């Protein structure tokens, strides 16, 4: 999880610089993005650890993460989350893919 967060923050820094933001503007954006990303990843971790996984809650969490990642410029992981959201049921492969994302 820390790896994903740190990679996304670095991507976001370059992403925001590409829009012409200066460091004074970027720092609070990165802090907010990191906070929100951490919160949503923890929520996802809790959801997949539950014995009975609610597919709707899981999809909402994946959707929220996808939006955060896209806003921060990490489109490759956001695209992966889009693929995961297409699953209609909780399968061992889906859980494995999500857990790999969280590690």
Order of helices and strands: HHHHH
Count of domain modules: 1
**Biggest sheet layout:** none
Helix-residue proportion: over 70%
Per DSSP E runs of 2 or more residues, the count of β-strands stands at: 0
- Quickly count the helices: 5
Radius of gyration, whole Å: 14 Å
Shape: elongated
Instruction: Please state the average pLDDT score.
Output: 93
Strand pairing plus helix content: what structural class? mainly alpha
Q: In what range is the share of β-strand residues?
A: under 5%
Report low-confidence residues grouped into runs of 5 or more.
Answer: none
For the record, give the distance between the C-alpha atoms at the N and C termini, rounded to a whole number. 5 Å
Write structural notes for this entry.
By secondary structure, this protein is mostly helical. The chain has one domain. It has five helices and no strands. Helix 1 runs antiparallel to helix 2 and helix 2 (23-49) packs antiparallel against helix 5 (92-102). The chain starts with a helix and ends with a helix.
């Amino acid at each position: 999880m820390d790896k994903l967060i740190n990679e996304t923050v670095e991507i976001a820094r370059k992403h925001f610089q590409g829009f012409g933001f200066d460091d004074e503007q970027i720092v609070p954006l990165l802090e907010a993005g990191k906070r929100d990303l951490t919160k949503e990843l923890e929520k996802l971790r809790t959801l997949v650890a539950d014995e009975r996984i609610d597919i709707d809650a899981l999809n909402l969490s994946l959707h929220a993460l996808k939006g955060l990642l896209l806003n921060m410029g990490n489109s490759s992981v956001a695209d992966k989350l889009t693929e995961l959201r297409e699953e209609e049921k909780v399968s061992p492969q889906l859980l494995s893919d999500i857990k790999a994302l969280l590690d």
